[in-house]
Amino acid sequence: MLLAKVIDLLEQDYRQIYPDDKPLIEGGFENILKELMKFS
Prior knowledge:
The chain is mainly alpha-helical. It is built from 2 helices and no strands. The protein is elongated, with a radius of gyration of 11 Å.
């Protein structure tokens, strides 16, 4: 979970520099991981 949060923060920094680029995952890695853990 911590790694997903770090990736989201890195992507947030990247998006500040390149605001026109499309996000890698809509909603962020941390939210996707939380959704996946619900089904486990």
